[in-house]
Amino acid sequence: MALGLHAARIRHARNGSAQPAVGGRVLSPEKFVGCASAVRHARAARRSRARAAEQAIADYLSVRSPGAKDWYMAEDSGLAPYQQRQMAQLATCSDYAVCRGKRGAPEHQLCPCGQCKRENTEHAVLECPLYEGLREPLDRTMREHTALVLDEAHGYAMPPPEALRWAIDDHSPGWVSSCEKTQTSLMKYREALLSFHRESKRARYSKKKAAASQHPRAL
């Protein structure tokens, strides 16, 4: 369509008052403008998706060292294989619409909670109302972790998104010293995070299964 409109513009310019045509069909000025507008919106949407994907890749690479394994894949990570897979899913957002819907329209990346927010790890873990009933143990552990950091880091109030990224990327805020107390607290928070992740996946699966059972084809 874009090439057809481009050719139509050339023919229109060459013919002066002749009406533009696409695929041999003459277009009215209104339809021509409408088609051109649709093409511009489609191009803008593609650029937006490309920028989102590039940003996601940049965020992922910003805390990784070239040629090095992610911390959770190391033999001394203390994680079981299924927990390593969970950490990889949390690190890459592969469980969420921001990754699953990256090749579709921008709205395919939105969370089904109805808040018009992109469904990524931070949204699902920290704020999505769909998992409100599952979040209390995680929130309690996070409050304990941030309270410890407040004492150990000379009054630094670590915000929840930063605590989450620390748990996933293993890069602590520069002003937080890595000691036995903070590492023990961090591991406890990670255990709560992985438990929340398992429960939220189970809740999503149950919801999809229930919706499928109500589909006319399933009856």
Characterize the structure shown.
By secondary structure, the chain is mainly alpha-helical. It has two domains: 1-62, no CATH class; 87-218, no CATH class. Helices cover 60% and strands 2% of the residues. The chain contains eight helices and two strands; from the N terminus they run αββααααααα. The chain is globular and about 50 Å long. 19% of the residues are buried.
Summarize the structure in short.
The protein has 219 residues and is mainly alpha-helical.
Explain the layout of strands and helices.
Layout: H1 2-15, E1 21-22, E2 25-26, H2 29-62, H3 81-92, H4 97-100, H5 121-126, H6 136-152, H7 160-169, H8 180-213
Antiparallel strand pairs: 1-2
Helix pairs in contact: 6-8
Name the poorly predicted regions: none
State the order of secondary-structure elements, H for helix, E for strand.
HEEHHHHHHH
Question: Level of helix content?
Answer: 55-70%
β-strand number: 2
The Rg value, from CA coordinates, equals: 25 Å
Given the helix and strand composition, which structural class is it?
mainly alpha
SS strand fraction: under 5%
The total number of structural domains is 2
Sheet having the most strands: 2 strands, antiparallel
Strand order of the largest sheet: 1-2
- Mean pLDDT value: 78
The CA-CA distance between the termini, in Å, is 41 Å
Q: In one word, what is the shape? A: globular
Number of helices: 8
